[in-house]
């Protein structure tokens, strides 16, 4: 089984203001604060774009707003997308509830990614944004951190969290739906800027430091992995460095 999140965009420009706070704070969507769609327009997208459509598929509690996380994950504020409850992302680190928030929907592009990594894998508890807009800039850059409760004990097993960031539009010809490309790829370790990429998608099987319960599990891109056992400010057991999706 693969638990997955997906962000599907045409083109976008991300700009976030910085306001340093002491501790990670997460407010989930779906309550009185904002809807999943308002989360995109009010938090995620910066100036320089004209939004023509936003759709969200998933449970509203799977997405939310966070701030105060720069000391923990390297990003101060933005949005959370999760297979579980977004509000659970704040620490301390512990075993998160086993029940997922997802609606058990699936997605063909995430299935493709999951089966490349783990043949025969299915996809569950998907959270999907589709955003269509017109940008004034010609470059997309999106900074993100991938975290998972399945680290490290489920590395090299049939359970594998994955993340996809798909872009489609004029001049783009990819292998996914609507000729889109997945730009959530692991950076090339030989490039210190982090702006040259491998062809490997982001998942717990592709970024890890092995599995302590399986001596035959070979670490994959361990230079990008952060163990999070015992953290006070983040619930997940492990997370990546800050990655950039670029087009």
Q: Can you put this structure into words, describing what you see?
A:
Helix content is 9%, strand content 32%. The chain is built from 3 helices and 15 strands. It has helices at 36-44, 70-73, 108-117, and strands at 2-9, 25-28, 49-57, 63-67, 77-81, 123-135, 141-144, 147-148, 162-167, 181-182, 185-187, 197-203, 225-227, 238-240, 243-246. The strands form 4 sheets. Strands 1, 3, 6, 9, 10, 11 and 12 form a 7-stranded mixed beta sheet that branches. The chain has a 3-stranded antiparallel beta sheet with strand order 2-4-5, covered by helices on one side. The chain is globular. The chain is mainly beta and 247 residues long. The relative contact order is 0.22.
- How many helices? The count is 3
Broad shape: globular
> Strand fraction band?
25-35%
Report the sheet with the most strands, covering strand number, pairing sense and barrel closure.
7 strands, mixed
- Radius of gyration, whole Å: 17 Å
Helices and strands, in order, run as EEHEEHEHEEEEEEEEEE
Helix content estimate: under 10%
How many beta strands in the DSSP annotation? 15
What's the N-to-C terminus distance?
A: 30 Å
- Name the poorly predicted regions: 9-22
Structural class determined from secondary elements: mainly beta
Could you tell me the mean pLDDT? 79
